[in-house]
Amino acid sequence: MLDGEPIIQVKGIVKDFPGVRALDNVSLDIRPGEVHVLMGENGAGKSTLAKILMGVITPDAGEIIYKGKSIQIRTPLEAQSYGIGGVHQEFMLVPWLNVAQNIFINREPKRWKGLPFIDHRRMHEESAKALAKFGISVDTRQPVKYLGTAVQQMIEICKVLTTGPKVLILDEPTAVLTEREVEKLFQYIKVLQSQGVAIIYISHRLAEIRRIGDRVTVLRDGKYVGTVPVREVTDDTLVQMMVGRNITQMYPRHRRASGPELLRVKGLCVKDGPQEVDLVVHEGEIVGLVGLVGAGRTELARAIFGIDRPVKGEITVKGKPVWPKSPQQMIRYGLGLLPEDRKRYGLALNMPVTKNVIMASLRRHFRFMIDSQKIEKLSNNYINELRIATPSAYRLVRYLSGGNQQKVVLAKWLDTESKLFIFDEPTRGIDVGAKVEVHALMDKLVQEGAGILMISSELPEVLGMSDRIYVMFRGRIIGHFRYDEADQEKIGALMLGIGVKEADAS
Ligand SMILES: Nc1ncnc2c1ncn2[C@@H]1O[C@H](COP(=O)(O)OP(=O)(O)OP(=O)(O)O)[C@@H](O)[C@H]1O
Ligand SMILES: [Mg+2]
Fold this sequence. Notes:
alpha/beta; Rossmann fold; 6-stranded mixed sheet; globular; binds adenosine-5'-triphosphate; binds magnesium ion
């Protein structure tokens, strides 16, 4: 199956953006029925290549060959005419249109052939049917902006699937999905594969790639590094190909005795969310908070940070009782939150890196006027420390790759010099090399006396970095472990609610 003629060949593609060569003479071929994984560090050029194939941007040089014939893909519509379609890394839905309108945008089914009357009933039925395949039932008349990010992502996936693609491009599709949807998506990918659909799959998650990938192509700094069968390559080799060096320690953590209490949460309840939550974070500690997506971890973080109001409970910061009224207030108490949904809550996309970096720490930088030289220097420090790939500190954040945007949010919170952080999925979408750097940075922060509550869906990360771990299930904390008594299986079972008495679980 995998030795067939390629459906698409990319030859010598070059793409320049101001100040960066995003793709530098990249060639590869995609065969029908294969899951071809694209890997590489943040900013390596993966999304750029995906966008070229989807007709969103045009290459400066190079050739695309479709079934042996040289073609031009100038628009998404042209891509669609070749059966090429995909899901972007960033959301592309129209927020105020409803689910069905989004799925069938620009190709609404007509009531009578040739006449411009939309068959709304069919549109809604088919949308619902497509979503049902993934176990999702939503009112297709709802504007998508009211739906959660996971459901929005599935809508994007259904949107391309209903076009019946021959080449399906998925750019980090699982970043915002819950385990259940990931499972469904992977099953569906297998079905598509058996029908001969070629799939280009972009992800930073090695475990995923091992599950569904056939071949993997690695890019580094816009250059082609190599293509290898997934089964024949070790994780170490892949990492080496991506970052060009060996990484010896994924979790650089120096654990030490913890200091005084920084945060205490007691009996906290949020409407339709977490219930009776007790937890503590001390100085010098990284405290992991695990649970399935939907367990209430993000809701808890938002309540502590004053975005959503808790209805009951107590919160003390350094022994002082506080009742979270707004994020601004909690920032003054020394709390920082790295949010899960960064595009929405974390960044000003149309501002440069410099402005984003100081956005949460303005009070500290603003004396009589902003010293722009100082801010530039400060930003450059973060750019170096976090290895943010950008040609300059003044580049608008919207032009950075997804993972590098994530690092800018991180820099912004680091600059608040907070003592207490809530990190919600801090390394999501971040490449392996940068992950280690973020981990090292977290370690450094707690060495210097900070405390971190880390929400993560990646168990190895939690086990590798935390001093203590809380397990959350259906809004309640149902388990608490010291790192040396925690093991992946015990925690994994608890996350799924296995072994939880019904009374606790309800
Ligand atoms: N529209 C644009 N304008 C300017 N520069 C851009 C634009 N799009 C991408 N770039 C730059 O091109 C390079 C490659 O970006 P790309 O988004 O392809 O990376 P990526 O491999 O997808 O990274 P990530 O893992 O972070 O998503 C980056 O340096 C990025 O800043
Ligand atoms: Mg990308």
